[in-house]
Structure formats: structure tokens, C-alpha cells
Amino acid sequence: MTELLVVAGEASGDLHGARLISELRRRVPDVQTFGLGGDEMRRAGLEPVAHSSEISVVGLTEVLKILPRAREIFADLLREVDRRRPGVAVLIDFPDFNLRLAKELKGRGVEVLYYISPQIWAWRRGRVKTIARLVDRMLVLFPFEVDFYKDHDVDVVHVGHPLVDEVPVLPQAWDGDGNGDGPFRIALLPGSRAGEVEALLPTLLESVKRLSAELPVEARIIRAPTIPPEMLDEAIELAGVPVEIVDADRFAAVADSHLALCASGTATLEVGLLGTPMIMVYRLASWTYALARLMVRLPNVSLVNLVLGRRVVPELIQGDANPERIASEAARLLTDAGERERMRAALAEVRGRLGEGGASRRAAGEVAAMLAEVSPN
């Protein structure tokens, strides 16, 4: 039996971790995975020490609230490591937690494979020295990350992005509607964490209300599995806006939408791969945002814009993320065919920029190779 620690702390990491575990079990049938994850990783076979939703938050204020529980989970993971003695650990994104964990694991002689790089090329670049010291192999999703890590003497492998396989090519709303005289279908993606949804959803719903005064629209919320339905129901009732909640076939629902209003994060890549025009909207606590501005070194925030290397998707952040501005940008994209088609043409490049499919399979191959190195017999 081969023991493997796997730790993911967010919804996207949980999904990618589940794909990795499934692929790995085909290569190493006797592998036993344990650690921190969500529902997807549990279904793939992870024996959970805790559920990742307990400590998946955004913003400094929110982090302070869950610190006691995070410390408990941290200690529980190490106790389980001491009991089961894995030779390898796979740490998935979630850097503030996982890099601290990597230090403890290295002290116990556990080889650390990091899957999905923290965005240190965007902010807090000093952490690359910590990574070089603690991480035995870094698996990255984006081609541009390879040179960055090589420049800092980190063993790095580009495996590609799992979303290339996970997000299908589907018919798009604009292709079926010609010039699109309405009603326009608007997809709302307010995030996968409760704090994000609480901060963004009321603003998005108010934006839809304002937009509906100008154009015929039908709104749908794409619910992340980590968000309880009652949270959305409450926001919809307070806003007084008729909105459909989509729980299943979210990719089909987004592809069938004329426009997406999307929180920053992995969801922007999903929407980009589907080719649906979008506006990225994000808001943080004021002091969290002030600190982030001091540290971020990139001109764009959206992953789609970063992958494409230019500003394609509007980014409405903090004060700009208000209902009036969002509704104005939405109306422009829905009614300006030239602007809309320019965005659609650019989004059609995203899939090619992310590389070939098979990322989870290649990542599993790297994990299997490291397991073999640690336990050659």
C-alpha cells in the first residue's frame, strides 16, 4: 500500500485534485490518499482529515475568523502524517496554508510536489525563495510560469491546464441568435466562496435590475457546489429580481448565455474557454485591497487577460464594481456588435494558449514517478 498526502483548500483545487487522484489510481492502484479536500476529492477516494470548505475564505478579515480552525486542521494533518508516514505529499495551490505545511513536511523527510503554482509571478515574488527551499517539484498550468521558476532554480514541469479537458466546446448563444435582439440571457458567476458571494451577488443582481430597464434580459445564477442554495435564495428575494438558479450543466448554461458577469478566479477561464463574452467583477475589503495593490505587479487581474497577454475582458474592481458601471458595460457589449465580436475572437484564442489536453494525466504521471523514486521497490 502506498500512502500519499493530498491537500487542497479551495473549490478549484478540489476539482483538479479529484481529477489527479482518479488518474493516479489508474497508474498506482494501491495508492491510499488522505488529507484535506472537498466533495470532489472525497468522491475520488480521498480519506479526509477535514473538509476544505472550513478554511476556504478570501480577505484578511475572513482569514482571521477561521484561524483557530485552520490551526486545528494543520495539526490534525501533521498527526496523520506522523501516523501514516507518506513518502510524498501533493500540495495544491492554497499557498498561505500549504507553504507552511511544506516546511513541516520537509522536516519530516516527505518529498513535496506542488501542483498549481501560487501566483507569485503576480505578487509576493519573494516567496519563490521559500518554494525553492521547500518544494521538490513544481507542476505549473501556464507556459509562462516555466521560465520564472527556472530562473530561480526550481524543478518545474509544465503539465497544462486541466480546464482544457473539463470545459467542452459547446454551441454559443450568439451563433444561434444572429444579431441578438433579445431577450438577452445573462449568467451571473458570483464566486465559489461564501464571502465572495456575499460581497458580489447583491451588486450583480442590482446591475441586472438596472440593465433590464434598458434591455430585455433573463438572468441566471451559476451556483458553485460550495455555495448553499438558501444563500442565493435570500439574496434574490432581497433584490426582487426574477432569477433562475442553475445547479447542473453549468457549462451549457454559460455557453447558452449572451453575457457573463463573473467573479475573478478560475471561473473566468471557464467562461473564456466557452467563448461567452464577459465582464470580470471583484470586490475586497478596503484594507485587503489596499494591501493587494501594493503587492500586485501585473497590469491585469483576470486570468483570461493574463493568458491572452492583453486586456480583452473589462475588469471592474472595488469602486468600479458598482451596479451603474456594470450595467453600462453590459449594455455596451450586448448592443455593440463590433466590440462584442472582437472579444469573442480573442476568447477563441484561450484554448490554444492553455496548451493541449491531458493535464491531469501528465500531473499524475509526475506524482507516480516521484512515488517510484521514494519507494523504488
How would you describe the overall organization of this protein?
- The relative contact order is 0.13.
- The N and C termini lie close together (12 Å).
- The strands form two sheets. A seven-stranded parallel β-sheet has the order 3-2-1-4-5-6-7, sandwiched between helices. A six-stranded parallel β-sheet has the order 10-9-8-11-12-13, with helices on both faces.
- It has helices at 11-27, 39-44, 60-84, 95-107, 127-134, 144-150, 163-166, 173-177, 194-212, 229-239, 250-255, 266-274, 286-295, 303-308, 323-335, 337-347, 350-353, 359-374; strands spanning 2-8, 31-37, 47-51, 88-92, 111-115, 137-140, 156-158, 184-189, 217-222, 243-246, 259-263, 278-282, 315-317.
- It is of the alpha/beta class and 377 residues long.
- It folds into two domains: 2-162 and 358-374, Glycogen Phosphorylase B (Rossmann fold, 3-Layer(aba) Sandwich); 173-353, Rossmann fold (3-Layer(aba) Sandwich).
- Helix 3 (60-84) packs parallel to helix 4, helix 9 (194-212) runs parallel beside helix 10 (229-239) and helix 9 packs across helix 15 (323-335).
- Helix 1 links the parallel strand 1 (2-8) and strand 2.
Strand order of the largest sheet: 3-2-1-4-5-6-7
Task: Report the count of strand segments.
Answer: 13
CATH class of the largest domain: Alpha Beta
Helix content: 40-55%
**Total of DSSP H or I helical runs spanning 4+ residues:** 18
Largest sheet: 7 strands, parallel
> Regions with pLDDT < 50 over 5+ consecutive residues?
285-296
Report mean pLDDT, rounded to a whole number: 89
- Class by alpha and beta content: alpha/beta
Structural shape? globular
CATH architecture of the largest domain: 3-Layer(aba) Sandwich
Number of separate domains: 2
